Amino acid sequence: MKIVFVIFFCSFLQTCISNDTIMRRQSLRDGEVILSEGERFAFGFFSLGVSNLRYVGIWYAQISEQTVVWVANRDRPINDTSGLIKFSGRGNLCVYASVNRTEPLWSTNVSDSISQPTLVARLSNTGNLVLLDTLTGRGYWESFDHPTDTFLPFMKLGFTRKGGLDRVLTSWRSPNDPGSGNRTLRMDRRGFPELILHKGTIQWWRTGPWTGLRWSGVPEMNRGYIFNNSFVNNQDEVSFTYGVTDASVITRLLVNERGTIQRFTWIARDNRWNEFWSVPKEECDYYAHCGVNGFCDPISSETFECTCLPGFEPKITRHWFLRDYTGGCSRKNQTSLCREKDGFVKLTHAKIPDTENASVDMNLTLKECRQRCLGNCSCVGYASAYHDGVGGERGCLTWHGDMLDTRTYLNSGQDFYIRVDKEELARWDSNGSSRKTRVVLVLISLSAAVMLLMVIVFCFVRKRRKLNSLRRSSTTFSMVSFDFEDSLKFEDDRELPLFDLHTIAAATDNFSSHNKLGAGGFGPVYKVGK
Ligand SMILES: *[C@@H]1O[C@H](CO)[C@@H](O)[C@H](O)[C@H]1NC(C)=O
Ligand SMILES: *[C@@H]1O[C@H](CO)[C@@H](O)[C@H](O)[C@H]1NC(C)=O
Ligand SMILES: *[C@@H]1O[C@H](CO)[C@@H](O)[C@H](O)[C@H]1NC(C)=O
Ligand SMILES: *[C@@H]1O[C@H](CO)[C@@H](O)[C@H](O)[C@H]1NC(C)=O
Ligand SMILES: *[C@@H]1O[C@H](CO)[C@@H](O)[C@H](O)[C@H]1NC(C)=O
Ligand SMILES: *[C@@H]1O[C@H](CO)[C@@H](O)[C@H](O)[C@H]1NC(C)=O
Ligand SMILES: *[C@@H]1O[C@H](CO)[C@@H](O)[C@H](O)[C@H]1NC(C)=O
Ligand SMILES: *[C@@H]1O[C@H](CO)[C@@H](O)[C@H](O)[C@H]1NC(C)=O
Ligand SMILES: *[C@@H]1O[C@H](CO)[C@@H](O)[C@H](O)[C@H]1NC(C)=O
Ligand SMILES: *[C@@H]1O[C@H](CO)[C@@H](O)[C@H](O)[C@H]1NC(C)=O
């Protein structure tokens, strides 16, 4: 296998260092490639499309389709093949162009000078280029800490609380230009952490907060059994990472230049990447699609996907009914909260609102959470902050201002409790009971209909029997009692009466639309006579 890969990737190159390491005194010229130990990834120079610009980066070595997962000099390509990768005197790995071998185009930028002669750059089989001292094993820098647009298994997204590291995905500019685009996916530093996709400075989509087993806004993670996800939020860092339980699965997640997050898995049989998941994909996914205090329900999308949360009404009704939801909703009665007995209306299967300004206490139970919210007049809603996946809930998230970007799902999602005043609570309670009344009414009319049907069938059967006995007496029988009944005659022993076309045309006023009653499974139905 090894030989095959080496031949495959080195045949058209001048040299191929079949090695995963660049030593401190070595350099890598354009055309040379290093391969990770398992030969899953390669590191070296590459071009994209028909362009002659040369970039340094990491790509899949075993995949026939060029798939770059990391780029070093993404904003400063080399315009010829004179590029060189080598260590600077201070121990940084640098990319140089021939025009200036003293000023690098790109550098690992480790601030401390590294003097160890045993310093190397090594490409790991997870696709991580690591600067480390082989003697002590100390790492100085790794490409996983400086992702471009691709989130590989075992990478981390998020920030460290000290040290200022922030691992952000930044899209390419276009499929053939790996330069820094303006779509980013980053861990929000404000409030309770969530990943936010930005389009320039605009929030475009968010994962929702981590709720124990998955992101609140990624219900598909329930089914992602081949991925083991883990989220860390402690004094040192806030980060998200995932692994693949089946090591033979090749998968990557990326932010593309249009602002879509896509996960692909490699289908070796067909030699292609298969889109496993992508987001945003429906109206309700777009950040704050229904404005402040509205929520998005994709199931009701034949009418309006946006509804105001309980206790709220559209700020500008006219805009709302023109399906312009940007104005959002405001409280029906500005002064009624926190006066008399408030209560909560439960929104089930929800993606909870943006947690940027939410408060969190992981030590409370859901019941205590409710009490805390009731006891604080600025609290407008609450939800549990952590699910263990088997019904256990703990932690308390409370909202204290406008609620933004709430939506519901068909089956997944969590419970979100919205504070309402006494009047609104009564309305929702009566809504509940009126729904019950409606159900009873439907049941009554259904059984009435069934009884009516039975009566009709009974009458029909009786008539049929009578008819048969008449037929047996072999008389010509006219069935209908219209003015032209004479022309409508049975032929003996026919199951169905047959009429010729003229007769029917005359009877239905030449199939006039005035005579059309409707259409059924067997065709249109006409009434006879004018
Ligand atoms: C990689 O290269 C270094 C130096 O050239 C050499 O010492 C080492 O044995 C090589 N490793 C492999 C696996 O070829
Ligand atoms: C390549 O870019 C350098 C500047 O980085 C410029 O001086 C040089 O003329 C360019 N060469 C070509 C062939 O475009
Ligand atoms: C290379 O860059 C350095 C630092 O900017 C500068 O001093 C030097 O003159 C440059 N050399 C060439 C050949 O451009
Ligand atoms: C390295 O530092 C220089 C100067 O601070 C900066 O312009 C450059 O973008 C940095 N490069 C990387 C790869 O972080
Ligand atoms: C993002 O970049 C694209 C081109 O790369 C540009 O057309 C677009 O206007 C930019 N969007 C924002 C929000 O900056
Ligand atoms: C995921 O599971 C694999 C195999 O069980 C394990 O090697 C890996 O460390 C796990 N990764 C994470 C992020 O939990
Ligand atoms: C708003 O609520 C207050 C207190 O419950 C009540 O007195 C007032 O009549 C309400 N206003 C409207 C417009 O319903
Ligand atoms: C959080 O509060 C700030 C300051 O009041 C406000 O500008 C921002 O819109 C709020 N964010 C959300 C998601 O409500
Ligand atoms: C939450 O509980 C833990 C242990 O039960 C305790 O160490 C911590 O101080 C508590 N935090 C708060 C905010 O009460
Ligand atoms: C209500 O909650 C907010 C946000 O957590 C907090 O700032 C405020 O002090 C609380 N008010 C009371 C009376 O507890």
Outline:
Pfam families: B_lectin, PAN_2, S_locus_glycop. The chain is α+β, with helices and mostly antiparallel strands and 530 residues long.
The CATH first-level class of the largest domain comes to Mainly Beta
Give the percentage of residues in beta strands: 25-35%
Helix content: 10-25%
Radius of gyration: 35 Å
Which structural class best describes the helix and strand composition? alpha+beta
Largest sheet: 8 strands, mixed
Strand sequence of the main sheet, in spatial order? 26-25-35-29-36-31-34-30
Sequence stretches where pLDDT stays below 50 over 5 or more residues: 1-16, 473-497
Count up the helices: 5
Overall mean pLDDT: 84
> What hetero molecules are bound to the protein chains?
2-acetamido-2-deoxy-beta-D-glucopyranose
| CATH T-level topology of the largest domain | Agglutinin, subunit A
Tell me which CATH architecture of the largest domain applies here.
Orthogonal Prism
Domain Bulb-type lectin: 19-144
Keywords: Disulfide bond, EGF-like domain, Glycoprotein, Membrane, Self-incompatibility, Signal, Transmembrane, Transmembrane helix
Pfam family, one: B_lectin
Domain Apple: 338-421
Question: What is this structure's SSE topology?
Answer:
Layout: H1 2-10, E1 21-23, E2 27-29, E3 33-35, E4 41-46, E5 55-60, E6 68-71, E7 84-87, E8 93-96, E9 106-107, E10 119-123, E11 129-133, E12 139-142, E13 150-151, E14 156-160, E15 166-167, E16 169-170, E17 183-187, E18 194-199, E19 202-209, E20 227-233, E21 237-244, E22 251-255, E23 261-267, E24 272-279, E25 294-296, E26 306-308, E27 312-314, H2 317-321, E28 329-331, E29 343-351, E30 359-361, H3 366-374, E31 381-383, E32 386-387, E33 393-394, E34 396-399, E35 406-408, E36 414-420, H4 422-472, H5 501-507, E37 516-520, E38 523-526
Parallel strand pairs: 25-35
Antiparallel strand pairs: 1-10, 2-7, 3-4, 4-5, 5-6, 7-8, 8-9, 10-11, 11-12, 13-22, 14-15, 14-21, 16-17, 17-18, 18-19, 20-21, 22-23, 23-24, 25-26, 27-28, 29-35, 29-36, 30-34, 31-34, 31-36, 32-33, 37-38
The protein binds 2-acetamido-2-deoxy-beta-D-glucopyranose (NAG) (10 copies).
